[in-house]
Amino acid sequence: MSTKLHQFYASFGSGTYIFSNGKPAIFIGGVYRTAIQSEIDELNKEISLNHPHLYVKKGEEVIDAEDLDPISVLKKRHFAEFMAQQQAAHKNPGRDMGNNIPSEVAVAGNTIAAPDLMEVVNKANALGKTAGIKVSIPSKGGITGMATTSTISDTASESNGAAVSSVK
């Protein structure tokens, strides 16, 4: 938690005010900040008695000690701007960031893709009926095409071990 400082101003610029206990309040650039309650009370009393040189500015009576550090102020400002941008982007319905639903990822040589491969084989067989082509999956993997008649003219092997045959 940050310290709250009471801020007092002096019309004489830089100078010193001596408290009743003998401690000096050193005004630098016409400003003195303190969190000590006895000093706050005494300076407020002097101001209420119309001290000719001491005053407070409305709205600047109390400040946060972190606001004195310019780097901290910049960090706060930039973080607030960043959060505003994130909130605006989050509320934008046209921003599709996908979803977080886990799905199976099939990498080469992985058997997770077998159900999807069977779907492809079934579709290929359905399309290949008219051309006399049948596609099957051997036990070691890969796709092989086999003709339904005894005349095979052409066999092409691909890098994944699949062979496609056609009938003449």
Write the layout of secondary structure elements.
Layout: E1 4-10, E2 15-18, E3 24-27, E4 31-34, H1 37-48, E5 54-55, E6 62-64, H2 70-91, H3 114-128, E7 133-136, E8 144-147, E9 152-157, E10 163-167
Antiparallel strand pairs: 1-4, 1-5, 1-6, 2-3, 7-8, 9-10
Your description of this structure?
With 168 residues, the protein is α+β, with helices and mostly antiparallel strands. The protein has 2 domains: 4-67, no CATH class; 111-167, no CATH class. It has 3 helices and 10 strands, in the order ββββαββααββββ. It has helices at residues 37-48, 70-91, 114-128; strands at residues 4-10, 15-18, 24-27, 31-34, 54-55, 62-64, 133-136, 144-147, 152-157, 163-167. Strands 1, 4, 5 and 6 form a 4-stranded antiparallel β-sheet that branches. A hairpin with a 5-residue loop joins β9 (152-157) and β10. The radius of gyration is 41 Å and the shape is rod-shaped. The N and C termini lie far apart (85 Å). Mean pLDDT is 76; it is low at 147-168.
Short key terms for the protein model shown above:
single chain; 168 residues; alpha+beta; 2 domains; 3 helices; 10 strands; disordered C terminus
Main β-sheet description:
4 strands, antiparallel
Distance between the termini: 85 Å
* Overall form: rod-shaped
| Average of per-residue pLDDT values | 76
Give the radius of gyration: 41 Å
The helix/strand class is alpha+beta
Elements, N to C (H/E): EEEEHEEHHEEEE
Count of β-strands? 10
Q: Helical percent range?
A: 25-40%
Segments where pLDDT lies below 50 for 5+ residues?
147-168
Number of individual domains = 2
Q: What portion of residues belong to β-strands?
A: 25-35%
Helix tally?
3
